[in-house]
Structures are given as structure tokens and as C-alpha cells.
């Protein structure tokens, strides 16, 4: 009898965590490493949010809470969704979990049966397919290309939906590309979903507030109100509020689904950290004044990275609409050999050689379902980004 679960054999460890861990190990060993793999802002959590956490500790708010969130946080989430997205929910339609990842996982565990299909546009966040597999479903990858701005078209979505399709996982702005869907682009997708009433949509809106230039964020249930009863709108405080370590994600949707997710959470982690919940109340209800200046800094870093990468031989880097990632193509480098003799036959080989020969850590595109590309997180200092991009330029120039 096998000791380990056969389900576990269907999944792989997170490649982004692996890259970050490898970079940290090399740095600890004395190497000059610039890590561009981490998906978190380098800003500190705003002071008013930290003060709210301290006040919660001082007031003794350190006990168990309701399984899926305190009433005050659920109400703050309802207020946020109404204020920012024009969506009306009651606290009974809200679930709070230990990060957005748990929320997504709970929803998949609560709804998927063997053979159920989940449509996932690629490039995708690395965890989507593996969470579907863990929950017993089958990921169906719909590949978007550089030519469509890394965005799924209505025709592509129509082509992959079957009678087994249960969910579409939708992420805008995207991790890893930063691509954002306009209202009209999203309306084209929701029109397809309206023709297939058995398909639900799980929206990952984690980068909602991190948008640049004239891009306007919108979410599916906002664009097509008739999808409200089969939409799970997922968000969290990690990115815009620089609260990655606080681990608070949330979702709003139909009460039956929220209740099923609550049941899953009650038998796994139970409630999220009580102190983090009170901090999240302040994040959502308190001042939002820091978001705009933070975005200005991100936009400047984005422009710096895009310019320098497009100056590197064989790299083509589009300009993203949001998040804090770029997803350049290295199609022009495939088949070349590095200065140390490594054949660049895949984007994983490129990322490995880049780390070993220059000390720059990026995540290879195959981890996100679309090659040959790599992901750069520009959530770090201008100086680090400039030095990293300079090393990438030199690395590419030496390929033969």
C-alpha cells in the first residue's frame, strides 16, 4: 500500500516559491543576487493599519473568531465591493480566508467532482492548475498569446467550454503578465458565459488597485449583472495594502457556495488570524491615500524595466496595464548558447543560466503556462531594477 496520496502526485511545488528560495540560498552563501521573483510589494504596511493591529492586540482581540471572518470585516468587505465595484452583497455572502489562495482552494474543494473541467487562461498564476488537480478537477488551458496582449478572446473561450466545464478562473490585471481587460473585452467574455449557464466564473481581482495610465478596472459581475448568481468575486489586502504576510483574502458570492466554503474551512484552518482581520478592517475602511503615490512609483519602475528589457538583444517586452510584473518574450534567444556554454533551448534554461551566470533571479515562463517567456517582478528598488536589467542586457549580448 502506498503511503503518500496519489492525488499529491498530480501536482508540483510552486515554481515561484522555488525561485525565491533558490535566490535566498545563493545570497546566504555570499553570491551577489538580485531577486526579481517575489510577488509582493517592497513597501511597508501603512502605519494606520499597523496601529489597528496593535490596538487589537492591546484590546485582547486575540481569540478564535467566526470560522470565515469577524462581522466587522465582512461588513467592511461589503462596503468596499459596493463603493469600488457597484456590487451589493450582505455579510452572509462573504467568506474571509487565510489569503486569496485559500479562498480559491476552498471554492474549488467545495464544488469540483471528478471529471469537472476548469477553464484557465494562460499565462496563469502558477497555483491555479494545481489547485484544480488537488480538488479532483481537470484544468483546461486556453492559451492567450503576445499577439492578443496575453488576453483571452471570446472565440477562444467559446472553443474550450464543454458540458463538463464548471468554472472559468479569471484574473485581471494578470499575474504574470500585468495585462488588464477593458470593459468591452470583458463584456465579450461575459456574453459567452451567458450562452453557457452551467459555467461559473471565479474572479481573482487581487491586483484591482494596481493599475496605471488610463486603464479602468472592472470585474465580471459588474460588467454583466446577470452573472451575479454564478460569480465568486475574490480579492484581498495583500497587494494594494502591502499586507502579504498578514494573510487575509476574501470572496463574495451566492450564500450556498459561501456556506460550502465555510464548511471546508471549518475542517482545515478554521478562522484567519484575529489580529490580521482587525488590521484588514482598517485597510478597507481607512484612508486610501497611499495607493495613488505607490502606483506612481510602480508605474515609473514599470517604464524603466520595459525600456531596458526592450533594449536587450532578442527580448520583446510589452507594456502591462497593472500589477507589478512584466512578461517578456525570449523567442529571439531560443537556440543560442550562453557565455558559460549553456544551450538556451527553453525559458527554464534561460532563467537557470541567467541566475548562475549573472545572479539575477527571474521565473521562467513555462511555470505560467506560456513559453518562451520569463516573469520579472518590479516590486523592488529602482537601483536593483537598473542593475538587474543591465546584467540581463549583458547576458543577452554575449549569447552566440
From TrEMBL:
Subunit structure: Homodimer.
Organism of origin: Roseobacter denitrificans (strain ATCC 33942 / OCh 114)
Cofactor: pyridoxal 5'-phosphate
The protein, known as: Aminotransferase
Keywords: Aminotransferase, Pyridoxal phosphate, Transferase
Entries under CDD domains matching the protein: AAT_like
Gene Ontology molecular-function annotations: L-aspartate:2-oxoglutarate aminotransferase activity; pyridoxal phosphate binding
Pfam families in the cross-refs: Aminotran_1_2
Domain (Aminotransferase class I/classII large): residue spans on this chain: 32-392
InterPro entries (UniProt xref): Aminotransferase_I/II_large (IPR004839), AspAT/PAT-like (IPR050596), NHTrfase_class1_PyrdxlP-BS (IPR004838), PyrdxlP-dep_Trfase (IPR015424), PyrdxlP-dep_Trfase_major (IPR015421), PyrdxlP-dep_Trfase_small (IPR015422)
Catalytic activity reported: L-aspartate + 2-oxoglutarate = oxaloacetate + L-glutamate
EC numbers for this chain: 2.6.1.-
GO process annotations (BP): amino acid metabolic process
Family: Belongs to the class-I pyridoxal-phosphate-dependent aminotransferase family.
Superkingdom of the source species: Bacteria
Amino acid at each position: 500500500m502506498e503511503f503518500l496520496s496519489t492525488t499529491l502526485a498530480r501536482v508540483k511545488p510552486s515554481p515561484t516559491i522555488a525561485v525565491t528560495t533558490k535566490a535566498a540560498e545563493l545570497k546566504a552563501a555570499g553570491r551577489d543576487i538580485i531577486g526579481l521573483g517575489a510577488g509582493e510589494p517592497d513597501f511597508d504596511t501603512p502605519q494606520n493599519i499597523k496601529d489597528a493591529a496593535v490596538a487589537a492586540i492591546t484590546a485582547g482581540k486575540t481569540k478564535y473568531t467566526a470560522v470565515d471572518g469577524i462581522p466587522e470585516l465582512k461588513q467592511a468587505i461589503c462596503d468596499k465591493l459596493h463603493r469600488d465595484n457597484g456590487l451589493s452583497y450582505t455579510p452572509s455572502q462573504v467568506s474571509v480566508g487565510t489569503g486569496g489562495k485559500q479562498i480559491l482552494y476552498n471554492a474549488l474543494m467545495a464544488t469540483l467532482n471528478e471529471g469537472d473541467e476548469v477553464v484557465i487562461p494562460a499565462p496563469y498564476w502558477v497555483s491555479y492548475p494545481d489547485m484544480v488537480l488537488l480538488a479532483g478537477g481537470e484544468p483546461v488551458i486556453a492559451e492567450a498569446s503576445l499577439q492578443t496582449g496575453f488576453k483571452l478572446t471570446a472565440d477562444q473561450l467559446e472553443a474550450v467550454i464543454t458540458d463538463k466545464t464548471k468554472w472559468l478562473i479569471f484574473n485581471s490585471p494578470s499575474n504574470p503578465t500585468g495585462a488588464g481587460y477593458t470593459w468591452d473585452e470583458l463584456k465579450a467574455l461575459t456574453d459567452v458565459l451567458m450562452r453557457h449557464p452551467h459555467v461559473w466564473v471565479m474572479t481573482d481581482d487581487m491586483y484591482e488597485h494596481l493599475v496605471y495610465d488610463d486603464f479602468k478596472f472592472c470585474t465580471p459581475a459588474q460588467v454583466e449583472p446577470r452573472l451575479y448568481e454564478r460569480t465568486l468575486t475574490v480579492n484581498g489586502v495583500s497587494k494594494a495594502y502591502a499586507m502579504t504576510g498578514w494573510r487575509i483574502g476574501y470572496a463574495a458570492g451566492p450564500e450556498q457556495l459561501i456556506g460550502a466554503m465555510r464548511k471546508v474551512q471549518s475542517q482545515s484552518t478554521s478562522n484567519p488570524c484575529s489580529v490580521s482581520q482587525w488590521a484588514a478592517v482598517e485597510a478597507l475602511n481607512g484612508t486610501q491615500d497611499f495607493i495613488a503615490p505607490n502606483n506612481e512609483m510602480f508605474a515609473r519602475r514599470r517604464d524603466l524595466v520595459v525600456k531596458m528589457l526592450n533594449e536587450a538583444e532578442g527580448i520583446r517586452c510589452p507594456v502591462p496595464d497593472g500589477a507589478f510584473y512584466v512578461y517578456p518574450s525570449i523567442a529571439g534567444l531560443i537556440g543560442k548558447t550562453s557565455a558559460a556554454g549553456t544551450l538556451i533551448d527553453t525559458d527554464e534554461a534561460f532563467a537557470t543560466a541567467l541566475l548562475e551566470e549573472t545572479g539575477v533571479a527571474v521565473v521562467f515562463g513555462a511555470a505560467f503556462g506560456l513559453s518562451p517567456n520569463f516573469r520579472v517582478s518590479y516590486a523592488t528598488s529602482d537601483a536593483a531594477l537598473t542593475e538587474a536589467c543591465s546584467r540581463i542586457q549583458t547576458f543577452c549580448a554575449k549569447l552566440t
